[in-house]
Every structure is written in C-alpha cells, then in structure tokens.
Amino acid sequence: MDHACLSKDLACFLAEGIKPGVPYWLNPEESHHLKNVLRLKAGEKLALLDLEGREYLGKVLKIDKAGVLVKAESLLRYEEPLKPKLIFLLPLLKKDWLSFLVEKAVELGVYEVIPVLTERTVVKPGPNLTAKLEKRARQSLKQCRRLWPLHIKEPLPLSKAAKITADLKVFAYERESQKTLAETLKTSLKVKSACFITGPEGGFSRQEAALLLKHQFKPAGLGHLILRAETAALYLMCVAHFNLFLQKS
Amino acid sequence: MDHACLSKDLACFLAEGIKPGVPYWLNPEESHHLKNVLRLKAGEKLALLDLEGREYLGKVLKIDKAGVLVKAESLLRYEEPLKPKLIFLLPLLKKDWLSFLVEKAVELGVYEVIPVLTERTVVKPGPNLTAKLEKRARQSLKQCRRLWPLHIKEPLPLSKAAKITADLKVFAYERESQKTLAETLKTSLKVKSACFITGPEGGFSRQEAALLLKHQFKPAGLGHLILRAETAALYLMCVAHFNLFLQKS
C-alpha cells in the first residue's frame, strides 16, 4: 500500500506491454495527455501501467514532434487479476448512463462489459459506441490505478448475450422476491466467473425473463422500491464487489 | 406487490397528510406537474402518497386557477418505515454529484442525509442547497414510489456532524484494510440506526480520521482501487441496503 500511495502523487500513463529498461513510445492519446494537458517535461518522473498487472516508476526520456518517449525504471507493484471474473451485461441507457456505468465498472473491478439490446431498449448503439466506452474505461483506469484492463465487447442482442458461459448467472428482476440475491451470492463465494444482467428503462419483458431463466440466469429482486435502470446495474456491481471480492478477502 | 404494480400505471403525486374521502388541494409544485406536465383532467384516476407510509388510489376533483383539488378514495398499500434508519453524512462534491447521491439515497431507502463540510471540501454550499436537494429527493421519491420521505438536513462542519448518535457508525477510509466493512456489517444486523460517512474528492485528512475514530466511527476500506468520491458514497449505500435490508428480510 505504501507503493500505491507513492505512485498516487505521480501522473500515470498507459503503456501497454512496456518492459523495464526499454524505451517506449506512448500512443497518441497518452502523448497528448502528457504533453498538452499535464505538460510534463523531459526528465520528469511518472507512473506507467503495462495493463498486465504492473505499475512502474518511470521517466520521460524525450518529447518531440514524433511523440513522447518514456522508460520504465522500477516496478512499483504487481497484482494478479481479480477473481472471480465479473461480467456485466449492461443495457444501453438514455443520457450517457452506459458510459457512467463503464467508469464505475472499472472502479469496481469488473472484468468485462457487454452492451445488450433488449425489447425495451430505446437507445440505438452509435457506430462509435465501443470506442467511446473504451476511452471512458481507460480514463477511469488511470484515475483509480487499476492494473488490468476492463474488456468491452460489441453490443449483442439479448438472445445471443443470454448464452454466455459463467459459473454464476444473475438477472435483476423486479417481480422476484428479495431473498434470492443474498442467498445466491452467499453460496457463490468460490465461483471463477459471475455474470450479471440488468434491464433498460422499463425492465425486461416476461418473454425475456423466460429466456434468461432458460439460460440459467437466476432472478434476483433488489428490494421493494423501483430502482432506476442505472441504479440497478450499479447496485449489482457494488454488491458483487462486496460479496465476491471484499467479503472473502 | 400487485397493488404496487397497479399503481405504477397511474401518475403519482405527493399529498402530505392527505386523508381518505377528504378533498385535498395539491401544493403548487404538484399542481403544476399534474396540470402542465402530465395534463391530467378532472375525473382522472391518480396515485397519492401521504408521506406517512400510505399510497392511495384517488381522483382529480377539479382543476381551476385556485389549484388542483384531489381526493384519496382507497388505500393501495401501507408500509412501515424501513429499519434500521440509515443516515448518510455526504460530502459536497463537484458537478452536482451530491444531488445525484440524494436521488440514489431515496431509491436505496436511506432515512436521512446530512451534507458535511470537511477540510478538503472545495465546493461551497449555496444558499438554496437544502431546497434544491429536497426537490430532487421528492422527484426521486415519486419515481421509485417510496412511501416515507428522505430527511435532508442543513450542511454541518465535520466537527459537529461527527457527534451524531447512531448504533453503528462507519467511515470510508482508504488506508484501512479491506476486511472491516464486511465484519462490521455482519455483526450489525440488529442495529436500529446506522450512520455512514464518506469523504470529498481527496478524502479525509489524518486529523479528520482521528476525529471520526474518537467519535466511534469505525474505519472501513472499500477495496484496493481508488474509488471516486461519489462512487464511495454510492458503494456504502448499496452495501448497507443489501446487508441491512435485503439480507435479513
């Protein structure tokens, strides 16, 4: 934890696949952030994330028109990937809430996000949806100093997404009693992967609920109040994090 | 639950203290919503919340320049107040995140929110802060059909807020190990009130953490990633809801 605290005072950059001692060109997005936003100079220290579990202490070697050259000098910390792998099938939502959920998914240790199209999904996925979500995920990753990337997949219709393979599959369903989620999570501390799905504004139709049941999703009520679509997804992220990461640690 | 489903199809209005059979003038905010936003007409059915646990089926008696007169006709549902009472001491945050947290506090069954000013709080409370938060809370209450109000207090400095009385007091502290929160909540299922506090952007200072400890707040780590200030507050709301409401039900 001391290393983490040290590195928090350093500006942090993504340097996928960087190796210690080997000069590395930052990509254009990271170069721009270093040069034009944070205005670092040659010789300054920085933190570098290799996106494979390592955070290095490094320095800026040079900044020129070709880009920004950096070097990783010493390993600050290494972390294993989080277990279990949390997979969230997330609805497309109004008002950019899906981007917000992706930001939170990074903070809360989610492994993979798959946007899902359902019967009552009114928002259409734009052509740049995945790229936009990936950018938001990278920003969030730097902010919370997460060492493994969040994987973001192309949007899928529910009929395909429901077939996903995971040791535990849960869907939020308002018609379900309140007990199931606690019981399901209590008996699932040892799973290797867990998949959660929540519906869009308006929820799942009865046909969709039947489809999810058919594909081994367990229904879970989230209490007697009507949660907004983004709250339901956030709720499952927080509760999954608490039960599957924190509680067992 | 059938009643709740029935009433979800009806527009819902706040009518504090309404009694069945007695004509009742909606307040100006609710009258505006009924007349100008949802455009209901005299004779139409609606749901009325008395803010003391009751939802009534009612109808519009008349709409004129004086306002909107309604009547509660039959009780759709009654609920006891949620127990334990969850109290959240919330930091003032940038970008209107505090309003967002108030909206979520309503959905997640929080009893009371007190905005708190700390050493690293950079946002200043405006003169209309409490009124603004109360309005957001009312909107959220109608949306999630909550039957008891969320209480919102005037902002307090941390030195005063820390003295609050509650059976369980928890503060989010990044320097704390990850176990405490799970253990604390596991042993607290029977408390009558629980108070949670999270810090602003930048967290609590060491002096503030010492003050909170002195006033019986238990420190809780929320995992090894750095959560944004609004995420930490949301996380505690979700986890408190799950552990103190859902799990014991």
Describe the structure.
The structure is a homodimer of 249-residue chains. By secondary structure, chain A is of the alpha/beta class. Chain A has helices spanning 2-8, 28-37, 97-107, 129-144, 158-161, 179-186, 206-214, 229-246; strands at residues 12-14, 24-25, 45-49, 54-64, 67-78, 85-91, 112-117, 151-152, 156-157, 168-172, 193-197, 218-220. In chain A, strands 6, 7, 8, 9, 10, 11 and 12 form a 7-stranded parallel sheet that branches. Chain A folds into 2 domains: 2-78, Ribosomal Protein L25, Chain P; 85-246, 3-Layer(aba) Sandwich (Alpha/beta knot), CATH 3.40.1280. Chain A is built from 8 helices and 12 strands. In chain A, helix 3 (97-107) runs parallel beside helix 4 and helix 3 (97-107) packs parallel to helix 8 (229-246). In chain A, helix 6 links the parallel strand 10 (168-172) and strand 11. The interface between A and B is large, with 36 and 36 residues.
In short:
Two copies of one chain form a homodimer. The first copy, chain A, has 249 residues and is an alpha/beta fold.
Distance between the termini of chain A: 16 Å
Percent of residues of chain A in beta strands?
A: 25-35%
Total number of strands of chain A = 12
Order of helices and strands of chain A: HEEHEEEEHEHEEHEHEHEH
Biggest sheet of chain A: strands, sense, closure?
7 strands, parallel
Shape of chain A from CA axes?
elongated
**Poorly predicted regions of chain A:** 1-5
CATH class of the largest domain in chain A: Alpha Beta
How many separate domains of chain A?
A: 2
Q: Do you know the CATH architecture of the largest domain in chain A?
A: 3-Layer(aba) Sandwich
| Approximate helicity band of chain A | 25-40%
- Any idea what the radius of gyration of chain A is? 20 Å
Q: Could you give me the name of the CATH homologous superfamily of the largest domain in chain A?
A: SPOUT methyltransferase, trefoil knot domain
Oligomer: homodimer
Total of helices of chain A: 8
CATH topology of the largest domain in chain A: Alpha/beta knot
Q: Which pair of protein chains has the largest interface, and what are the residue counts? A: A-B, 36 and 36 residues
Question: Structural class from helices and strands of chain A?
Answer: alpha/beta
Mean pLDDT rating of chain A: 92
